[in-house]
Design brief:
two-stranded parallel ribbon, single chain, binds fe (ii) ion, five-stranded antiparallel sheet, 50% helix
Length: 390
């Protein structure tokens, strides 16, 4: 394989490592080392390598890299405004890391500013849209819009594993939870517009996995709709993903019981908010927002629901947001005791209970978002590709 191909392969592996591992993690650092070494090898051969990502075609210098036709990163890069990528011999490992971080930021942020200004300090790595730098050759060239193939398989697999680990060892694998949130955020922003990729339930006993991921996506969507900062969107996503974590402490028979729960079974079921908050705080004290949401997500605006507060008080905004998303996904799903409701019926229910069960502003924002973004809701199984919208 040529050095030009080897670098791109290492580049893609490093992007995956960056989404999965936090700064300083050995896997991440090793991936960066490898990518930087491949870049050095490339620069030794060609002092000024230039890649162009045009739809699903990659051109190196003037030569199309046919071996990489269909490489999934090409359309993703092209869609986030990186159609041209150019390296100088002076490029450093830090610059490579900063570039990769920017690629991830562009993939996960809604507002993508591809202007030159965003490219901070002078760097041995230059990138941007084809033609924007007064590049005569390519000015006015049509950039093909490509369809990006995302599935939710890896994320679903990780969430299942996370719940099993927690059940077996009592420890929440936090970095994996954060990686799932990041992965879902990438899937939401793979296209130029925000998407709401929701999972279809395959088996009743997989409900908690599917439901956690859907509430995570809906919570991030609503937080973004409300104009929150990317950091807040991410925190609300983590809170959405973990809101029902306490269900790992509830027996499977109760979770999948087709009929009405007995008072004893109901009491066990109702421990999941407090159990969840405890498990989250045991894993990481800094996750207090997720812990609060786990605790409060079944408390209604009028104080009904559970757990009962000894001294009624207002719940956190994040809990109110997750509560609306939680009820939506639950009602949209087939359960052993009832069929899924159509979307309009759920939205009407949400409006009807606004001001009693749900916070009025939150319920209103949610129903508006769902009506407006309906064409961007993609309900898929784990194996299915999320279709791009028009
Ligand atoms: Fe719950
Ligand atoms: Fe839930």
């Amino acid at each position: 394989m040529s050095t030009a191909l080897q670098f791109l392969t290492a580049f893609a592996q490093t992007l995956s490592a960056l989404t999965l591992y936090p700064e300083g993690h050995t896997t991440r650092e090793r991936a960066l080392d490898t990518a930087f070494q491949k870049l050095r090898d490339l620069l030794a051969e060609d002092p000024n390598p230039i890649y162009s990502f045009l739809g699903d075609e990659i051109v190196y210098g003037h030569v199309p890299l046919r071996e990489l036709r269909g490489w999934e990163w090409a359309p993703r890069l092209s869609n986030i405004g990186i159609q041209r990528l150019q390296f100088d011999a002076t490029a450093t490992r830090e610059e490579l890391e900063a570039f990769l971080e920017d690629v991830l930021a562009r993939l996960t942020l809604r507002a993508i500013d591809t202007s030159e200004a965003r490219q901070m300090r002078p760097s041995g790595i230059r990138y941007g849209a084809v033609g924007i730098k007064g590049d005569e050759d390519n000015a006015g060239q049509e950039i093909a819009t490509a369809t990006i193939a995302f599935t939710l398989g890896d994320e679903a697999h990780t969430v299942r594993w996370m719940h099993d680990e927690l059940r077996a060892k009592g420890v929440l694998p936090l970095s994996e939870a954060e990686a799932v949130v990041r992965g879902l955020s990438v899937a939401m922003h793979g296209d130029q517009q925000v998407m709401l990729p929701l999972l279809k339930l395959r088996r009743f006993d997989e409900y908690t996995t599917t439901h956690s991921m859907n509430v995570c996506v809906l919570a991030m969507g609503l937080a973004e709709w409300l104009g929150m900062s990317p950091d807040d969107v991410r925190s609300f996503g983590v809170a959405g993903l973990l809101h029902d974590l306490g269900k790992v402490r509830v027996s499977k028979e109760i979770l999948t019981k087709p009929g009405k729960l007995t008072p004893e079974e109901r009491a066990e079921m109702n421990t999941h908010p407090a159990e969840g908050a405890r498990l989250i705080l045991a894993a990481e004290e800094d996750l207090d927002l997720a812990a609060v949401v786990a605790y409060e997500h079944h408390i209604m605006l009028n104080g009904a629901g559970y757990p009962r507060l000894a001294f009624p008080r207002d719940c956190h905004r994040a809990s109110k947001l997750v509560h609306v998303c939680d009820v939506y996904d639950a009602l949209r799903t087939n359960r052993p005791y009832r069929d899924a409701w159509p979307m309009e019926k759920v939205l009407a229910y949400t409006e009807e209970r606004s001001g009693t069960e749900f916070d009025g502003a939150m319920a209103h924002a949610f129903t508006r978002m769902m009506r407006e973004w309906e064409p961007r809701v993609a309900v898929v199984t784990e194996e299915e590709t999320i279709p791009a919208t028009a």
